[in-house]
Amino acid sequence: MEYNFDQVHNYYERLVFEEVAMRAHDEANTRFTADMLADVACLALNRLPARYVRHDVDMMFYLTEVERRAMQQSLDEVLKFAFAFVQERTARALR
Predict the structure, then answer these.
(1) Whole-number pLDDT of residue 29
(2) What is the number of other CB atoms lying within 10 angstroms of the CB of residue 75?
(3) Three-state secondary-structure class, residue 75
(4) Biggest alpha carbon distance in the chain?
(5) What is the pLDDT of residues 15-70, one digit of tens each?
(6) Which of 22, 38, 83, 87 is the most exposed place for a label (fewest CB within 10 A)?
(7) Residues 81-95: what's their mean pLDDT?
(8) Coil, helix or strand for 7?
(9) pLDDT at 95 over 90
């Protein structure tokens, strides 16, 4: 029997990576290095529940509007936390 797990991924990964990239261009976040942005993404992903899917469209099909809004709110909250945390820790390390 052959197994194919190549399509299995955490649904939040793409969302977090896209949001981190977008927010990196915000004026408050322009001083973040590539390494710092990777830390932000890791920190955010570790604070979100794992939602493994094969196809992103499947996830969206089965979510209610309330669940979608809750996911977006969770994403916003963890990213705000992660950016602030990494920025504060980096500033503290430079002192």
Answers:
(1) 78
(2) 17
(3) helix
(4) 57
(5) 999 999 999 998 777 889 999 999 999 999 999 999 999 888 878 788 899 999 99
(6) 22
(7) 90
(8) coil
(9) no
Structure token pair of residue 62: 């089965």
CA geometry: angle at 73 spanning 37 and 9, to 5°? Answer: 60
Q: Is the pLDDT of residue 93 over 90?
A: no
Give the residue from 59, 50, 54, 60 showing the smallest Cα distance to 6. Answer: 54
Number of other residues whose CB lies within 10 A of the CB of residue 41: 19
Token pair belonging to 5: 């797990």
Residue 16 corresponds to which amino acid? V
CB proximity list for 15: less than 8 A, separation 6 or greater? 75
Residue carrying the six token digits 């004026």: 27
Q: Where are the alpha helices (DSSP H) in the chain?
A: 11-23, 34-47, 56-62, 65-94
Where are the domains positioned within the chain?
9-94
Q: Which two tokens stand for residue 34?
A: 């590539």
